[in-house]
Design goal:
The model has no long low-confidence stretch (mean pLDDT 95). It is built from 6 helices and 7 strands, in the order βαβααβαβββαβα. The chain is globular. The chain has one domain: Rossmann fold, CATH 3.40.50.
Length: 203
């Protein structure tokens, strides 16, 4: 049975194009994989904390004998990391805010990219991702036509993160120009639908 993790990061609900894409993905995934387990992680409904000193000491601890306050600080990060590791497919639905990902998505990344959990040291200066065998799709909405522009920092950043933790394939689909008068939501969503279907069939 396929396990799919869907992470949504838009601060908005009403009129949120990235959420429309995530709903479309879930609909298509359920149709193609009727028995799939879909885990939804809404980063606006459950805001995540910034990394703290206690968390960092736990991330890099050399042994399991951690103070109780440090163990407590790791509980959410442990849960999020296990959701990621358990998934066969990872979907990130995010708007572009100021040319990059929202702070909520950065917070999620900071809590799941962990030594010994999602990546490991294999030699001095050499690291290996532990999320191998998984594919990811990023569904990104943006007010302007920035997908192929150098100001799009979402794609290179998330590609670096995906490669670092060992995700073997990451595909991007965009809804561009959502703030422009010429934007046609139906046409744009139809284009994304085709990309989602192709991604799911290849996965």
């Amino acid at each position: 049975m396929k396990k799919i993790l869907v992470v949504t990061a838009s601060a908005r609900y009403e009129g949120a194009h990235s959420r429309a894409m995530s709903r479309l993905f879930i609909e298509k995934a359920k149709a193609l994989f009727p028995g799939a387990e879909i885990m939804e992680r809404d980063l606006t409904a459950e805001p995540l904390p910034a990394v703290s000193e206690e968390m960092l000491s736990g991330f890099f601890a050399k042994n399991d004998a951690l103070p109780e306050r440090v163990q407590a600080s790791l509980s959410l990060s442990n849960r999020l990391s296990q959701e990621l590791l358990a998934a066969d497919l990872v979907v990130i639905a995010t708007p572009m805010y100021n040319f990059n990902v929202p702070a909520s998505l950065k917070a999620w990344i900071d809590l799941v990219v962990r030594p010994g959990v999602t990546f490991e040291k294999v030699a001095d200066g050499k690291l290996r991702g532990l999320c191998r065998g998984k594919s990811a799709m990023v569904l990104c909405s943006m007010g302007g036509a920035f997908a192929r522009h150098h100001t799009n920092l979402v794609e290179p950043y998330l590609k670096i993160i995906a490669d670092f933790i060992g995700l073997e394939k990451v595909q991007f689909a965009y809804m561009e120009g959502t703030a422009q008068a010429s934007f046609d939501e139906e046409v744009s969503l139809c284009r994304v639908e085709q990309e989602i279907e192709r991604f799911l069939q290849e996965s």
